[in-house]
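cache lookup: miss for this entity combination. No prior model stored, computing from scratch. Input as submitted by user K.M.:
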Amino acid sequence: MIAAHPVIQVTAFGLSSGATFGLLALGLVLIYRTTGAMNFSHWAIGLLAVIAYLYLANEGVPVVLAMLLALALSPIAGIAAYRLVFRKIPRANQVVTILITIGIAQLYASLAAMVLGFKQFTRLPPWLPQGKVSFVGTQLNTTDVVTIALAVGIAAGFLAWFRFTRTGRALRAVAQNREAAMLAGIDDVRSSTIAWGIGSALAALALLLVLPHVAGKQGGLITTFDITPFGTLLIPAFGAALVGGLVNLPMALAGGFAFGLVRELLVLAPKPWSDLRAVAAALLILLLLVLRTERFFVTAQEREALEA
Amino acid sequence: MVTGVAMASWGWPFWLALPLAAAATIPVSIIVGVTAVRLKGLYLAIATLTFADALGETFFKYGRVTGGQSGWIVHRPSPFRSDASYYVLLLAVAMALVWMVTGLRSSRVGRAMLAVRTNEREAQALGINVYKTKLTAFLISGVLGGIGGAFLALLLTSVTRSAFQSPLVEATSILLVTVVVVGGIDRALGAFLGAVALVVQQQVFQGARFFFAYFGIYSAALLVLFLLYRPGGLMQVARLQWRLIRARPRVGIAAAAAIIGLNVGLAWLFVRLS
Amino acid sequence: MLRLDNVHAFYGPVQVLFSIDLEVNDGEIVALLGTNGAGKTTILRVISGVKHPALGDVVWNGESIKGLRPPDVLRRRIVQMPGGRGVFPGMSVQENLEVAGFSFGRDSERLRRRIEAVLEFFPLLADRRRQVAGSLSGGQQQMLTLAKSFIVEPKLLLIDELSLGLAPKIVEELLEIIIRLNRDGVAVVLVDQHVDLALSIANRAYFLERGEIRFSGPAKKLRGRDDLLRSVFLAGARA
């Protein structure tokens, strides 16, 4: 009975970090499929929302309202990047696109660092209720439970929107066959703008769920590690996206949970194996890359269109 | 990395540790390369990012070998102890490497690499072993990286986790990308030119607090602007300028003078303001 | 009906169209022929607004439509059928047809009516409404692509590579549908690698080489120009 407790606790941990990987991955896949850009600046875009949240909270805005406002503002960063920069690059030039996302990442991360005044640590107030919930006799953090529920709820809502609404269908059409979508009268610039906006909001939500709550009641700290352009959570998010071959949204979400669980459950592994925790994500990603997961989700012809 | 181990733990002199550092990159490059050669563009970029992070984690995890968090202290070899003399050595080495890589371009291997980059299928049809060529490129760049790392260690005179691991590694990697793009992505001299241009600015303006603070923003903006408008980097700018001078000497020289003057003027302004 | 005046177009620094003059009259079928990479598809893309010309004008019934975005061109009932495979492979046949009527906005009644009308031309597709388009055969996918371009009731239909990779029997079926449509007054521009086929149904023809028009006139006349057509046949034989 007692031995079961840590497993449940760690699972909750894993699922909650997995939820954030999943949200990041959803945004990555959405932007990639609709616009052809693999967004290495995803983390930095989300980071700007966290900075906005911090600013508002420090100005005395109630934390939950500050979070909602930050979330509402978050699409600006992504849409600006798309309209001002990515729109101007020919789609075929993938290497240049990647290099530019790296540049944007650095730009936004530097902006964030500047707003924070280049400090080593900045305290972030939490906005989720702090406390414990009892589950099968195990005490779980409310923040973990709410994070999981919120992430799953929003992801489900987003997937339903993508599947059943007119705009969602237009985005899917652009993703599957851009030229045919344009010839059917779908405005590709508008679709790409929407994809960048929603992708940014998903990244912002993921970071707003994690960063202010890493240290429990203390709230969260932003350290120099978090202000890096490719924050540490982006690598598992890429991994999660790869589970869906970079193209399948529900699988990307599932991949997020898988990466979260593996990372946390390794804590329980016996000594030499638990050391693998730091590199587990990297090893999984290598495996996924070698498996070429994308071939399970799209036809060869669609893939060529994406990679062209 | 390996230089540090060899010099500090085994007490090897630098001149022996340097080739070792270069050689040590070979197995790593092969492991990375064998995987990476199978990947294209985007997948390769993800793999690279992942590798960089994972390698940093692993090396410093095993504190016994690598001195752990505190790292090690290394000393520069005897005639090059002072910063000035070390600088001369670095310059010489850098120029030698630029010369070698430029030479590579016109060698058999270099031409094969160019062909592979231009069109993989056609290169294959011409009888070029694409796999081997790509792997060679990874090896050469790995060795260059090893040499660079060794000299960096000596420049900092210590090898620590913080110098070789995120977030600095990420910032440095991005700076490297910026350097290469700003210089000119398809020329060895371009990389050197870009490095000089960026680092000189970084150093000159170090005194100007507000500028140094914004260096990240500045270099990122530079990277994006160059990619958008001058994808060939400074080398392309120079070539275009040279063509203009040849075609319309007066206008060309005036434009070149204006560009250089503007840059010098801005630099002077920044120094004055700080 | 449609006129291209001195159109020049570039992809990056490469010029792909040089001073193109082209005309399509009411109720005509015009064949646009040429070797691979001669610029045929680019001409269609210029008309449909996917590609904007650097110079020159595109005139539709007396109004310049140069520089309009694809949705606005579509509103004038100029429809381009995409080359290669033009379906959305992850969507069902029904969904594909619904997306083709995207320009109808929220008028779902009109969309429903049009889909029923179009499916009468294609009984084969009517039986497979729920099937995912990516799992259709090549011929069926091409059929669906053609069906999609009928949804908005085109006045001018631009067809890019109708016969590519299809069995002759299927091509014949598709051609018959196009001829039927043409009898109802739809003008057609037909781009095809298959010269004989295109010329067999066309009234007039243009022949392109490296972005320039080398021949324009009655389709019958082009048939006699072996000097021009040889290059296409040679390219075809190699492919």
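stored under new cache key. The longest strand of chain C covers residues 14-24.
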